[in-house]
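Journal club side-thread
Mid-discussion, someone asked how the predicted structure for our own chain would compare to the paper's figures. Pasting it here so we can look after the session.
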Amino acid sequence: MESHPPPHSSRLIIDSDAIAANYQTLVRNVAPATCGAVIKADGYGLGAATIASALLRAGCRSFFVARLSEAERLRRTLGPDCDIMILNGLDPGSEAVCADAGFIPVLNSSAQLTAWRACARSAARPLPAALQVDTGMSRLGLSPEAALTAASDTELTEEIDLRLLMTHLACGDEPAREVNIDQLRRFEAVAAYYPGVAKSIANSAGAFLPPNFHCDLVRAGIALCGVAPVAGTKTLRPAVRLDARILQIRTIKPGTGVGYGLNHVASRPQRLATIATGYADGWPRSLGGKGAAWYRGVRLPIVGRISMDSLTVDIGGVAEADISEGDFVELLGPSQSIADVARDAGTIGYEILTGLGKRHARLVIENGQMRNEHNGEAA
């Protein structure tokens, strides 16, 4: 019997063609630097395998994740010919597993550096690594002083095959901030002691800073998904759409409350639709009474609180004959971007994107064709 995906209450459409196009846009923007891809947190919530496959086809060969477990899963998609770097470094005791798999840890502390050197001595060969320097974000990385001490250690190159020296911008999404220049100068001062080692400071936002920030390698992340890392960026293609079905339509009388707490009370007759997406699906509870869905270009304001599995919108702006139970409304798409939702929710696009739940049916556009992510069938 032929297998088909069941009907779905919501659908997350991931445009891998747009992701590949965004990668090529960034490649052109940062040349002659190369462009790597950060696909941590399961590809910013969109599926690391899906994102990696699109980027591999587009020519990307350098990938970054946050954890060893992410690297192990990603290798199944990428195969042995791509570099996979682990941004958080390694948990104590996992060095041998990482070395055997051929991953490249980003060493962020003297303790991580010491443990990786010990692993190299046990393996009797230099092991590849990247070294991160903290130039002002106070999150991860060796202090500049510790990095200079490491550079002066004549045995370092016998144990570590240093592939990359990197740091991370705290305010790259605010191009006018003087701290960006301060971090670049601190990084360059340390980098002078690592001649011949590739350098990296720019994330997605840094890709849109002046060329002196691009160094040898740019680490693009959310920009690949079409989310502008710097306000006003117009060159990226949206890569995500989210639609959800109308479960029920009702008309309520004046004085009727809606949702948990009944904190929305109708002041007039209202036509409402209950939509099959809630905070368990990544739709922030903070959007209650502020956010919206869209239907054929008409904004449908959210009324009342958002529940775990549903939300309620006012559909009074749509003619009764034009909307029915079972229809899909747009939550992300041409009418409402990730940035729009983040603004209304009082958060950032990263949180919206990485929070999208696992219950949505996932459809992937590849070479202009749409398929179901889970079984490969045409949708």
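Post-session note: The chain has two domains: 16-225, 240-336.
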